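Hi C.,

You asked whether I'd gotten around to modeling the 232-residue construct. I have! Everything is below, sequence then structure, no commentary in between.
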Amino acid sequence: MQRVNINGVEVYPFTSRMQLLDYVDAHHAILVAINAEKLMHATAQTRGIINSNIGYCDGMGAVMAMKQKGEKRACKIPGCELWLDIVERYHATKSFYLVGSKPEVIEQTVAKLKATYPDINIVGYRDGYLKGDDDRSRLIEQIATLKPDVVFVAMGSPKQEILMSEMQQRHSAIYQGLGGSFDVYTGHVQRAPKWWLDHNLEFAYRFLTHPGRFKRQLPILQLAVKLLFHRV
């Protein structure tokens, strides 16, 4: 599949969630959710990680950029839903390792997954608070030893992408960065209501309910200007 270059970031123009999952079956790599923030603030390091793995459209800004590049059928695939699709597809056939969030949240996440999928094979998990280089090295070594088929890392960007890249050097698997998805899954954080999601206004809902996140919304405005003048 031909990737599309958007502001120096190479993104796959998947037309459905199923197409992405089928692609992952044959290409084990790091799944990176591409939104306005990643498009506008990518560093040489994070751009290299994305461009050598699988970037997919997680935000409407990325989808609009795709359409402007001629990929009219490209669609939005929310990462906070995609990881559960991966669990649904592989819970009976692959092993999993989970990293991220607070200790109580990761415990609740694992408990809920096991209740929903009694046959799921979770070979290990831990919170996202790594205590220095030694702790980080032990985690990477554990991944290399246990060799899980799927690794979910919920630590926020770019920390999760950098950590997954280091893990990938020791063990090939399906990796996905999840941000705050464990918090959403366990009910500690609420997503936007359905109307906002259906109208692709999740970013607006976040701004209205958490105005302190204004700085994090700036990349959306920056990308909008680039799209307006066809400079992506």
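If it helps when you're writing up: The chain has twelve helices and eight strands.

Thanks,
B.
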